[in-house]
Amino acid sequence: MNETIINSIWLLAALGLVLALILYFVAQKFKVEEDPRIDLVADALPGANCGACGKAGCRDMAVQIVKDPAYTGCPVCNEENVARIAEILGRVPEKKDPMIAVVRCKGGKVNTEAKAHYEGLQSCSYAAGVMPAEGGCPFGCLGFGDCTAVCAFDALHINPQTGLPEADPEKCTACGACAKACPRGIIEIRKRRDEDGRVYVGCMNKQKGVYSAKVCKVSCIGCGKCVKTCPQNAITLENNLAYVNDALCISCQACVDACPTHAMTIMPLDKKKAKAEPEAAPQTI
Amino acid sequence: MKTFNIGGVHPHDNKLNTEAPVKELPIPQQVCVMVSQHLGAPSQPIVKKGDKVKVGTVLTQNDAFLGAVVHSPVSGTVNKIADIPDASNYPKPAIFIDVEGDEWEESIDRSPDIKREIELDAPAIIQKVKEMGIVGMGGACFPTHVKLMPPKDAKAEFLLLNGVECEPYLTCDYRLMLDHAEEILIGASILMKALGVPQAIVGIEANKPKAIEHMSEVAKSFPGISVQALKMKYPQGAEKQLIKALTGRAVPSGKLPINVGCVVDNVATCYAVYQAVQKNMPLIQRTVTVTGPSIKEPTNFLARFGTPVSAFLEAVGGVPEDTGKVISGGPMMGKSIMSAEATSVKGMSGILVLPEKQAHRNNIYPCIRCGKCVDACPMGLEPYLIASATAAKDFDKTEKARVMDCIECGCCQFTCPSNRSLLDNVKLGKATVGKIIRARNAK
Question: Which domain holds residue A62?
Fold first, then answer.
């Protein structure tokens, strides 16, 4: 009886030793050299695995950042993240303008009048194949929230009053997932400009002014007033729709005052400069 | 009685006021003719503002293989070319024509005599059909001349005429078969000659006994054409289901009817072919059913293309007070329209006015795994699976579940006891998978 127990212990111990030696030598032979900085960089990344960079996840991105010094980096990192990564890798922190998602439609429930009622699948990509927005604009926001569903940062929500999505400036990282999800391409990633305010055209309607004004109170009618007032020549008019070039805009807000339909938008709203003769603007966003 | 073997549903047929004769709708003051009224590459207008046109003047050009031209349905002056919402509710280019008199192109034979001898040979018939802008009038608007030119490796054996009209409410094909049976069958003989097929079968559902009787009687004097009564079942008017019902052949997944030796054409298309080939008359008008439970006198109207929906509704005594929605086409596959500005086009077979209480969807409940949608699917698909895979954005799975075979008949959603949006999800999956496949093929 005793002998059986002792033999078993010896046998198992010997077996364990032999296998441990095999494992040790195999591990030595096939060792993967990994840069210890990869783990540190992965910790410094936001860790949301949002996929905005196109990589399989944050760790995959960290491998890329460490390997390639020319790599521009994570599109959703804030300044703090960038500084930490630069410190780990001993590089100069990359300067980039903070960005945010802007919704280029101000129609919604407030500024358009519902001409139909939709009861089908609550999905923008399906509804876009069936009808224009309920207000009749073939370019406007449908309001079923395909964009909010893909937001990995809980930053985009449909405002129940306006029926339009709004980006939370605190949470939005400008990853661009919402811009890809929108079947109408309404969401654009633009510079934040938190101090001066970001200026953009809150309309996507490419129809002639007579038609776009019929469906929405705040549509761009392609009048071209903004193009004329812009001191930077940052605004172009194409297909009856104005577009503010983000790289040239200096947030002077001349166009915002000139726009007769209030399609030209300044966000955040408290950055709106007082005008000489204040005018009641329709409540938007 | 014959029918197709898999799936199908039995909606109430709701054919209202079927014995009333077809009325001619007065030509409105202004018509808006949609520039593209077919499936395929869009056409370009060749008229401009101020041009005088007659009935039958060509308005558009289309050089694409899958293309069909549009002719002026009225005489008058072109007012403008602008966008108006069509039945898809999106603005599309249309030619506005101010109507002046009713002057026809001289080449059109307007005499009422029926002309039976087919003078043209096969290539000339196909050319004529193309020139006259004939498209499939069942609703899909597939250019008819393309169907008459089968690929080299396929041989047509049967011409199948679709007189099924399985959509509830619609009666325009029924009236056409009663009023113009001989013309339809001459049209069929023309198509048989163009295709070189010896045999044609007209499929008519059993809820139209008068049409079956009348067509059988007339068909006696046409060698090779027979009439087959079919058991009522939706969607028997779908191409693949009709082939199965009439010939017993199954079209394999991803193949065309011609691969099993069949060409299917609607009876209204045959009538249009007759008029084009024998009378030199382009496709400028069609019979449109205006119907609905609260319409006082549901009627079939012979109307020129470009007539606004509002003119049809006025002709039946205005929009009833309890109207909930207006649908272009039938209740199963038709699309609800947002604006009465939309005008009649080659594919618009009916205008259905549904009262408020029938216009809404019922509450959606969870799937109870009953499998009714699987039983009902005439293509043998699993709608619940496709719908859930699409909702989960698993498009590989959606594609593997053969979503591209879906004919969008709506049987699954019709039969679902939990009122789930099966068809919506399947259509979304089909559109997305279609995009993925095109992107893959482009690589």
Answer: 36-89
